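Aim 2, interim progress. The first record below pairs a target sequence with its structure tokens.
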Amino acid sequence: MAASAVSPDTPPLCEIEGLQIGFRTHDGTLVEAVRDLSLTLAPGERLGIVGESGSGKSLTGRALLGLLPAAAQCRARALRFDGRDLLTLSARERRKLCGSAMGMILQDPKYSLNPVMTVGKQMAEAFRLREPGLRGRALRERIVDALAAVEIRDPARVADAYPHELSGGMGQRVMIAMMVSTGPRLLVADEPTSALDVAVSMQVLAVLDDMIARHRTGLVFISHDLPLVMSFCDRVAVMYAGRVVETCAARDLVHATHPYTRGLLAATPPLSNPPDALPVLERDPAWLTEAAR
């Protein structure tokens, strides 16, 4: 997949400055999960966020859409989307914005799909948020076409199925179809291809490609797959313990300078002649305080 061309003079679609997310323990101690994070995203840009599990990648994406857990304590110097200050919006305004202009593909479809509604009814809700007049046969055709685009066999049958009747990979494809087909301005994709085989993953990436080309969607692509991020994204932010320790063009990730990033790359097994054991990442406490590269 070829990365998109984004002019450096393009005004940002999203701006995050000084994002802090923490959780209180039972004794009142505040544990910081995201620390002073700052990022920007341009229209039509693909920003990859990589790092180990627990580094704060998903929380960062959720903060943009206002989908943090109730126990989370979140503050930021600035959190803007398309020129609007998200910190000043009411909960109702944030929900409306999420339904019409922003979307998120969650890592586990079990927590994304309503178990008591058919796939088709849930997709119909998503379509009507952007096109209230879409009904009847035209709506049904849009739903079936969206499911077919992500390589779902017999999409008409799946549209009438309930989530529990689908496999994990198929549920993930339903979520991708639902989010992509409405053409959001911003899409946060949290491990969107992790539950899919290689062939279907490539088809899903092609669907994301088409969405970005048609709608100039800004994509935040959260992943553990560094080779995929290098080939699919424009820029990469590397997170460690809630902080961004390095940012670079995706094509330059192989030349990363931060030892944490180099450790992640070294831990990626090669396709040919894999070693008997992968290197163990040795952490340095200084990574928690030094400036991002």
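The second target in this work package is listed in the same format:
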Amino acid sequence: MVSSTQPPQPNWSDPQYYFSRELSWIEFNARVLHEAMDERTPLLERLKFAAIFSSNLDEFFMVRVAGIKRQVQAQVDRRSLDGRTPQEQLEAICQKLLPLVAKQHQHVQSVLRPQLAGHGVFLLDYAALNQAQQRYLREYFEERIFPVLTPLAVDPGHPFPHISNLSLNLAVVVRSPEGTSHFARLKVPSSLPRFVLLPLELQRRKQTPVWMGVPIEQIIAHNLDKLFPGMEVVACHVFRVTRNADLEVQEDEADDLLQAIEQELRKRRFAGSVVRLEVHESMPDEIRQTLMAEMGLSKADVYPVAGLLGGRDLMALVDLPLPHLKDAPWKPVVHPRLRRLMESEYSTDEDFFALIRKQDLLVHHPFQSFSSSVQMFLQLAAQDPDVLTIKMTLYRTSGDSPIVDALIAAAENGKQVAVLVELKARFDEENNIQWARKLEQVGVHVVYGLVGLKTHTKLMLVVRQEGDRLRRYVHIGTGNYNPKTARLYTDLGLLTCREDLGADVTELFNALTGYSRQKNYRKLLVAPTNLRDRLLDLIHREREIARAGRHARIVAKMNALVDPLLIAALYEASQVGVQIDLIVRGICCLRPGLAGVSDRIRVISIVGRFLEHSRIFYFHNDGAEDVYIGSADWMPRNLDRRVEAVTPVDDRAIAKDLQEILGILLADNRQAWELQPDGSYRQRHPASPDAVQSAQQILMEMARQS
């Protein structure tokens, strides 16, 4: 029995109780890199993780590092949760990233490329090609590359050119016949493929190749005599620049938010300050210094690379038709209730709505199909003559979106359709602008949300005439209305027609589209209105139950845990005996395992085939067991600066299903990592090969057998 004596409360603002947000993210990306190095994972899947590692780093620099550098330039001295100044954060990031980047490139060069070659996939260096291959590429260069190249001189009459974000470039030094050296910059056109394919018949190896490619920058570098005739090419080195890509829109001063976002996007392409310079390690210091001086960078901003720059481009090889080098294909299954419906020869569109009226429906993607559940629900609603209104939020969707097509069909069928398109969804702004315009053209009411708040919630409301009454059907999800990511991310969606939830979602949409200021919701936990307070209440309730000597438990699954108030509440709950399990995929600022503070808190992270994206919150509540799902992570931005919705799951059978999912995740010993008190992660290992428990594999098998 836990003592009812309240322990002395530490000062929860003390940095010793928190990990650095930035360093915790780097730890997450290190786990991604580990997947690229895990020999248990098929080869092309490992190459994919290596590419994801690079892509993640690009975004990290464009957003997080850029933001910290802005703080340094503005002489902001506010310290992070773990007590570092902005300058100290930059130094810590650099110190942690340099060896990790070197590790990735070394692994790609010395392990993945040779293993790929063993399967007939040759990523070749130009210098190692035979004469026939080099002749072919010389002709290819002259016909396909040379006409689109633009060498730019750098001298008093030619200022240093703008280097666009994430572009590959060559720094070239040439010498005139008079002995004068000149510097030029040559951009590798992004319109051309990164890897130029060689005809397979030019391969003179015993093994029949499947794919042969050469990095385009090497082809250009070896044919510079065509670009600088009459000059001697003294040096040529590849470099790549990363710029600040975060939008800064003054929403309250913008008359037209869509137009303001468009203008800011144009500015982002050309005006963002440089935050990282990647160079090939062979680049001499003199050229590095020239680039640093021209772009206003310090040595800490330069990342030397031993292999290919722009590792995200390796993703082009992942789609090669080599199924034996990939995970076995996974086709999401139709939810068993929907499958029985679809198999019935008397099935009608009405039956889908009747199925929801009979019992709430929970779908778990990608184990269960998005297209035959959420997407089909919207498509049926768009065609159903009894449906009067459809409202939904769009944060991210696919390029050829059947979701948008269904909304257009609904509008053309005379239904009132209102869509909140979040224009500030990072790196999807341009796509969302296009969708907004397309929807407006067919009469859809398109709004962009509340000033100063990003709308991140995943909601759909369908109002249907049924006899002499209107019934509201609701979908509340953890993931985007995107059929493509629904096959790659683990997410949950609840379809229901419960009156209280329908009323709450109606009022939330009114707040998003009009001037309503709803403060109290019947069921929903809504940010920034009441979500933070309700989560604190739920944690405190477990704390008081434990303090009374009864069993108390919290299990929470999310993408990130950063909020200091919620972390402090979890510490206080742990201190009095609440057992707390946290499944946090990425950033976690909570420090587990501190004696007398967090020794009852366990944190695991799962990095596997599918991106863990669902949010599930479980509170034991003295045996009453409350379960919630929704779109919100436990971060200040989600709780204070975004519109989020989290719903209780009142259907007891579905609540039990969610508890089972949490239990399977917590038992994972294949892709699970446990957070240690020092901030490192330790991968779990099964006691024997027969004891392997991969949560994602188990959930796939359960779906297959359902």
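The CA atoms of residues 37 and 111 lie 9 Å apart. This observation will shape the mutagenesis plan for the next reporting period.
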